[in-house]
Amino acid sequence: MDLFSDESDNEMYEAGVFDSATATISGECTVYSRINYESELSDSEFTFRFRLNKSSVNELLVKILPNLRVKSSRNYGVSPLHQLLLTLRFYALGTMLVSVADFFGVSKATASRIVSDVSRAIAGLYPEYVKVLENTQHAFHAIAGFPKVLGAIDCTHIPIQSPSSNIGEEYRNRKGIFSMNVQGVCNADLLFMNVVARWPGSAHDATIFNNSIIKSEYKHEGVIVADAFPLRTDVLKPYNTRGEFNDKQKIFNYRLSRARRVVENTFGILVSKFRIYEKAIPLSVQKVEQLVKTTCALHNWLRETTVDYVQQRSLETEDWVTGSIVPGEWREVPSLAISDLPPTNARNHSENARRVRDLYAEKFVTSCTVSWQWNMIRRGYNNTTATNNTE
């Protein structure tokens, strides 16, 4: 039996490990004796099923317990531990809620209430773990040789079910898919520093940025590296690869791509850990907003507290011999989960913004060179982050 496949559930049911809940009749009540998954599952199987190891689950339970509405299993209710595990299982699988309910021996209505309550409790940790961090510039300079970088920004489209007819079309993106456009800003350590999860799929990335608090918090203190966002004095993006494209511009694009790769890896890890993002999320728009904040807070907490939460093979890296990009394991997640849309043809960049980018490009070939940039240029590095539609 392959312990690391969802199909193994059926075999484990047959073996009696996942006998959901044993029912006995006491008077007029049906009493369920639920399985202790911590004792029944090995450490590796437990982590695979719930995405957190046993010690992390218990630590998280202590953090959220004060905010749970049901704090005990009296009157044969669902214990706080089983509530948390049910919710984590829902995040990990992204399956129908009724399947998760059957797994724990509860009704679909009870499972829905539990997921809502636990998600709300975990989302309460968001301000503590998702926040603008200081001293980010050194780490970005270490991985990309890019000075004064405060963060890497990107937007990703989270697929959702069709909302109500009154607002449905607002959530249809340019690919014709119902989605929520989520903006994230990350540091070089793969931690979310800001997440905006309230805009419909039809909203442009620039609109989200211009209305986000991160715009004012980062102004005049450094730069954010981006791709499809409009070029600004505080938001740098690649040069257009069409037409004249010299070595100076290639080096700028390459070093910028190294800096902004962290946000792609961060979103990729989030989606690969919580497979609920693989397909259209069967929740209301408001609950999807809560889900994004919940999983981002979980991601940051696990990144800071769990040594093996992110493994090297999960990350997108470079082959230093060929200069090609080595895809991270998160690329195996269906592309619908991370549906980046092509950038628009906006070309109204200010002269000051172009001047700032040109200044960086000039420094990268004069006073701020690094040996590896020339190696990649000689090997014919293909900057996959540069777009053909922007200046």
UniProtKB/TrEMBL annotation:
DDE Tnp4 domain span: 153-300
Entry cofactors: a divalent metal cation
Keywords noted in UniProt: Hydrolase, Metal-binding, Nuclease, Nucleus
GO-annotated cellular components: nucleus
InterPro entries: HARBI1-like, HARBI1_dom
GO molecular function, one term: nuclease activity
Domain of life: Eukaryota
Entry keyword Ligase: no
Cellular compartment(s): Nucleus
The keyword Hydrolase belongs to this UniProt entry's keyword annotation: yes
Annotated family: Belongs to the HARBI1 family.
UniProt protein name: Nuclease HARBI1
